[in-house]
Design brief:
about 500 residues; Rossmann fold; GMP Synthetase, Chain A, domain 3; 7-stranded mixed beta sheet; alpha/beta
Length: about 500
């Protein structure tokens, strides 16, 4: 078993079909597979052995994908590091993952820590300074036709390491196996009805589980086409959808909000027949507005890095707004109390996960692995409930729950109310330190361009929709929010404010 077999099969069945479109370059499945073979052969020549850990530290570009599958083809482990990380963060990750090799680009090289700060020998490859890697994407670069033996890996061998975001503590490397990723890719293709005619947009970082597994690995498993971008640029993305006839839009809530609030672009999105959101909770009101505007549901799933993405899926044929769907395939979920005991249907508790998609563990962190996998279930840290039809609803993160005046308040519930106000474009609710309440429910709000609303307007609006103790005590108007490179809002930075 080897994850890179999907690229080999694509080259066999559809050699001339576009696998990747990036800027003005189109790369066929045969070209991609030849490049993957070239990388695997080159790494072996440099002494890379099966199970060695090799990091990719640079922005989205075709070489990232070629190197990723080349590392995996030779039986090594691809360690995916966010290109946004700086020197001190890199030093931790390099040492934590015990890297043998790191591949980067000239524009990221200066971020690497000094050799003295690295606890072991590390081979560093800079694409622009390496004759083999620099030529991977050149159309006239001939590749050797010699067959490269693909490493035969066990199903439970570590294939990639994806680091958790680190928003709640020190990042940990989730070890995802060949079985984890191949099962999830199959699961996504089945539930999303993905086909080889599909063209999936990808502007999210390839180092993140959403872009890495849910978008990239799934579209290659279906032998479709990946429309790859370095990042999100509104004009560029809209133009790409129109020019490249994107059929599948994968984005985070912020992007859907921006598209909704830019009517001039709506007619240019006609090729999109499927829209999906992940990485953070999608407000139900935005789903309703998208459906009214484009006639499409925004499909959602529940998943996390440790579950190789997909756990549940909100269906093509029975979509419920506000839910993240039912368990996908043979994945199991359970709602449990603080002791890990199952709760009755409808009760709120921690979401536990079990299935062939669940990680092997955290690399080099046995204590944290044991804690996360207590009782044979992955403990998500998320609060949820399951309705009578088996649909899962995310209530909130356990860590995000606000205790105000001794009463529990879930920020997501308050945010959903605020999104129903005509003037609110985006919002986030957090509990801030307060002498009277312990934690005060505080809403950070960005208004739609040209709209007006006062603090009292929004607080009173909330009080008409939810219990008074849940309504914000204070509204803070902002121009933007602190975010991760994946677009996930960083509430921990909002919580540092006090009043």
């Amino acid at each position: 078993m080897n994850l890179s077999s999907s690229i080999l099969q694509g080259a066999h069945y559809f050699p001339d079909k576009a696998a990747i479109v990036f800027e003005n370059t189109t790369i066929s499945y045969k070209r991609l597979n030849d490049a993957v073979n070239c990388v695997a052969s080159y790494l072996r020549e440099r002494g890379i052995k099966p199970k060695d850990r090799i990091a990719l530290y640079f922005e989205n570009r075709p070489e990232w994908i070629m190197l990723y599958y080349g590392i995996i083809r030779c039986g090594a482990v691809a360690v995916c590091i966010s290109s946004a990380n700086k020197s001190s963060e890199l030093m931790y990750l390099i040492n934590d993952a015990q890297l043998v090799c790191l591949v980067t680009t000239e524009n990221r090289f200066d971020n690497l820590p000094e050799d003295a700060e690295i606890a072991h020998d590390l081979d560093i490859l800079v694409i622009e300074k390496d004759a083999i890697l620099m030529n991977l994407c050149l159309a006239d670069r001939p590749f050797s036709e010699a067959h490269v033996q693909m490493a035969e890996c066990e199903a439970n061998d570590t294939c990639i390491i994806l680091y958790t975001g680190g928003t709640t503590g020190i990042p940990k490397g989730a070890m995802l196996t060949h079985k984890n990723i191949l099962y999830t890719a199959l699961n996504i293709c089945y539930h999303e009805r993905m086909s080889l005619e599909d063209r999936s947009l990808c502007f999210l970082p390839l180092s993140h589980v959403f872009a890495n597994i849910h978008i990239t690995n799934a579209i290659f498993y279906a032998f479709g086409t990946l429309l790859l971008h370095k990042g999100f640029d509104m004009d560029e993305i809209v133009s790409s959808i129109e020019t490249n006839h994107a059929t599948r839009l994968y984005a985070v809530p912020t992007v859907y909000i921006r598209l909704l609030n830019t009517p001039a672009c709506h007619s240019r999105l006609r090729s999109v027949g499927y829209s999906f959101s992940a990485a953070t909770s999608m407000p139900a009101e935005i789903v309703r507005q998208w459906k009214e505007t484009f006639g499409l549901n925004i499909h959602e799933a529940y998943g996390m890095t440790e579950s190789a993405s997909l756990v549940t899926f909100n269906h093509r044929y029975r979509h419920k707004i506000g839910s993240v769907g039912t368990p996908a395939g043979i994945v199991e979920i359970c709602i449990a109390d603080n002791n890990g005991s199952p709760l009755p249907q409808g009760k709120e508790g921690e979401i536990l996960i079990r299935g062939p998609n669940v990680m092997k563990g955290y690399y080099n962190h046995p204590k944290e692995t044991a804690e996360a996998m207590k009782g044979g279930w992955l403990h998500s840290g998320d609060v949820g409930r399951i309705d009578a039809e088996g649909y899962l609803y995310i209530v909130d993160r356990i860590k995000d729950m606000i205790i105000s005046g001794g009463l529990n308040v879930y920020p997501t519930e308050v945010e959903n109310v605020l999104y129903r106000h005509d003037a609110v474009e985006e919002c986030a609710v957090a509990g801030l330190s307060n002498a009277e309440f312990g934690e005060a429910v505080t809403a950070f709000v960005r208004l739609k361009p040209g709209s007006k609303a006062t603090e009292s307007n929004l607080i009173n609006f909330c009080k008409t929709e939810i219990a008074g103790y849940k309504a914000p005590k204070k509204i803070v108007f902002v121009n933007d929010f602190p975010r991760t490179p994946q677009g996930k809002l960083l509430k921990r930075k909002l919580r540092k404010i006090s009043f």
